Amino acid sequence: MPLVKWKNHNTEDVEVGLMLNALKERYGYDFRGYARASLKRRLLELTRYFEVAHLSELIPAMLYDEAVAQTVINSISVPTSEFFRDALVWKMIRQQVLPQLNTFPWINIWQIGCGRGEETYTLAILLHEAGLLKKARIFTSDINPAFLEEARAGCWSRRRLEGWREGYLQAGGAGDFDSYFEDRGEEVAIRPELKHSIEFVQHNLVEDEVFKEVQFVVCRNVLIYFADELQERVLHLCTRSMERGGYLLLGRSERIMDFDEKYPELEVLDSDFQLYRKVVGGERHV
Ligand SMILES: C[S@@+](CC[C@H](N)C(=O)[O-])C[C@H]1O[C@@H](n2cnc3c(N)ncnc32)[C@H](O)[C@@H]1O
Predict the structure, then answer these.
(1) What is the value of pTM for the model shown?
(2) Average pLDDT of 210-238?
(3) What is the model's pLDDT at position 211?
(4) Residue burial 19-46, b: 16+ Cβ < 10 Å; e: rest
(5) Using a 6 Å CB cutoff, which residues line ligand 1?
(6) Which residue segments constitute the domains of the chain, with CATH numbers given?
(7) Distance (Å) from CA 35 to ligand 1 centroid
(8) Separation between Cα atoms, residue 38 and residue 15, nearest integer Å
(9) Under a CB-based contact definition with an 8 Å cutoff, are residues 15 and 56 in contact?
(10) Confidence category of residue 5, pLDDT binned at 50, 70, 90
(11) Residue range 26-42: average pLDDT?
């Protein structure tokens, strides 16, 4: 006779579920709507980092030790980024979107999932070079307060500049990329002038609402971590926050499911670069 009728034969899946419930109950972060396969992989990597045999052994440590919880939350929220990541996307933004944004009396941008700030300052550099930074406000948000703090500080290892310089040039940069940073020995820090138009906001896409009407939403490489239902919530949040005629940029590998039925207010401007616009009069004609 079996001990019980097991509903779930995969013990690791049970452990992942318990861990997510514990995070939600104890710290209020709800990651249950994230794409499970990649989330499970990242959580299982933590067993090697903490040198435990099973994920569930981390649950008590996480409940009683905020530093352990922060490590777990960091590993789920993945801040990987670069300046001018997917450089050709930024070239297109420079050439096609910024001149259009300039037709608005002011420019509010919501940049979602800022990680450590690389993408935020990429935007600031582009706006500065187009002469639009003073007219613009970038609201940059992330779920993770530790990343927001690092983004606000804007310091990176000097070694990373080389690859980023390449991206800047590919994105049509004609200035001196290094001049946007101050020398701090082994590190470089973004120049304070580039920070003046930026507001760093803690915002959780799982449960928070729209906080601003904007002309441009940049939400790149965030949806890939979410399961379908959460992706849909976020896309509606993005659409609701956009002024009519405003733009939405997603990550290059991010595709919108059921686009025609679910997002009649959006039209595709460039499917390769994943650029959308909120239609001006009501709904798009399909
Ligand atoms: C891979 S980074 C993307 C960085 C940048 N957008 C880029 O494309 O280079 C994903 C970011 O999304 C943030 N994130 C994950 N879940 C989130 C949520 N529920 N609400 C807001 N931000 C979230 C993470 O903390 C992380 O900084």
Answers:
(1) 0.95
(2) 96
(3) 78
(4) bbebbeeeeebbbbbbeeeebbebbeeb
(5) 77-81, 85, 113, 115, 119, 142-144, 147, 203-206, 220-222, 225, 251
(6) 11-77 (no CATH), 87-278 (3.40.50.150)
(7) 14
(8) 15
(9) yes
(10) low
(11) 97
